[in-house]
Amino acid sequence: MTLKGNTRPEARAQNDRGAVADDFPMEHILLQLRRAPEIEKALQQFIDELHTPGSPNFHRWINAQEFGARFGPTKPDLDTVTRWLASTGSR
Predict the structure, then answer these.
(1) CB-based contact 45:37 (threshold 8 Å)
(2) Burial 46-76 (b: 16+ CB within 10 A, else e)
(3) 3-state SS assignment for residue 13
(4) Contacts for 60 with CB less than 8 Å, ≥ 6 apart
């Protein structure tokens, strides 16, 4: 799926060299997931509170694990992506 505004300028028809073999190694792929609107809203609120004196979250920095648990993909989302990758033969 192509997300609007996220296609590299080099990805044009004149640069297309055709299909590659099914076992062609892809050494680097970036898969970007969108947060659910309610999680995105909670993240934006948390960020605002980090910088708001008097907020209970003022300067309450969290580590990567807590950030992922609170604002990252859910287990069902990860399971869906994992199943999709496995169905395409990805490892």
Answers:
(1) no
(2) beeeeeeeeeeeeeeeeeeeeeeeebbbeee
(3) helix
(4) 50
Q: Which residue has the tokens 């792929």?
A: 29
Cα 18 to Cα 11, 81, 89, distances in angstroms: 12, 26, 20
**Using one digit for the tens of pLDDT, what is the confidence trace for 37-91?**
999 999 999 999 999 999 999 999 999 999 999 999 999 999 999 998 888 776 5
Please, are residues 50 and 57 in contact by the beta-carbon 8 Å criterion? yes
Give residue-wise pLDDT tens across range 16-45: 999 988 888 888 888 888 899 999 999 999
Q: Which two tokens stand for residue 11?
A: 């990805």
